[in-house]
Amino acid sequence: MVHLLGAVLVAAGGALLGFQAAAGLRKRGRAVRQMEEGLALLERELELSAPPLSRLLERGAAHSQGPARGLFQGCARGLDRLDREDFSSLWRRMVRERTELTPEGQAVLLSLGDTLGRYDGERQREALAAVRRRLGELAGRLEADSRRQGRVYQVLGLSGGAFLVILLL
Amino acid sequence: MTAAGSFVQAVQALPLRLRQEALSLPEGDRARAEELRLRAGWPMTAVLPEGERPLGGSPVEGRELEQLVEIASRASLHTVLDQVRRGYLTFEGGHRIGLCGTAALREGEIHALRAISSANLRIARQVKGAAAPVLDGLCPGGRLADTLILAPPGLGKTTLLRDLIRSVSEGEGCTPLRVSLADERGEVAAMYNGRPQLEVGRRTDVAEGCPKAQGLMLLLRAMNPQVLAVDEITAPEDVGALITAAGCGVTLLATAHGEGRAGLERRPLYRPLLDEGLFRFLVRIRREGERRIHTIEELR
Fold it and tell me: What span, in angstroms and rounded, lies between the C-alpha atoms of A34 and A132?
């Protein structure tokens, strides 16, 4: 009975590892997708009313999810300290803190710090749209990877667990 | 707010190092300082009534001038781009940064300033009560009459206009009236985030940033004013808009560059104002030592 329980636990552990790895893949894709949606929101707000950057980021934070919310909130707060850190540096620092966006996603986002708040509304919208499109492509790739590799991880986890059970028994 | 308090508020727009330098000025000088001048490659200077005085720090860097614009605009250049194209930027408190540098042109018009080489931080100070010496004379029967303020630059036309608007809008020493102000360059009310940074009274509506003639017509249509105010009549369109407004039964309050009535009559731009009998009173300002003397002349 104890042996059987142990075997079930080992099998379940293996399966859990596999599912966790698959979930991690899905999470990366979702984070990049949420960032893409957050930028789309900023783009629309800029087109509608071209508000000051602080208000733009606050609205963005209020209606976004995941890393977009955190990034926008952090940058909106940092605008009170522009005499110590310019917006470009602030944006870069905040982007680097959002590790869930993957290094590729972060690299795509970094360039926005040199454009947001520094040009006319049209140019900022163009930059947002360009970055949003690249994030959309990245999210698509990550989601496809997640579907393909996620299943592999799940199967690997299950079969790894089963293999261990066979070995132990 | 005290004069020294205005100085402290204004220097918040400076990058940290320059702000610390500015705050090294003694309290008395902070209250007297009119401007801070920043020129790339030279130490920052303070403009005091007796002249320009270097503050003795390291030379200002181009990067710091860009940072100044970023701080003053709260990293939102797109909201102040029209001002920047005209060479200035108003920020919280009504303070103003004059900008100079290499212009980027688009279709023959200044599109942006590419490399900023100089900035002039003008500290806004409201002189409440500036209108008190003339208020009685301009309000026969307690109600403001059509008034033109005339003086050469630098004698306080805008200061007097602002305080007249505030007094009439608040009903200080006269009947309170609804005032609409066409503030094209934002020098009278200094709007920031939709609020006047300099007091223009609770019954005052401000149209900022649009050309004066258009602003006057917009206010006339939209705000149903009892008094229509405008700073610096400079173009025939402005005169035309004032003539139209006068026909609608609105009291006019305006300023113009000039020395006296004779000078006004000689200039073709202002001639229609006199011919049409638009203004009842002409207020002239002149300086006697440190004092400003106001003279009221009846035009009709």
Answer: 10
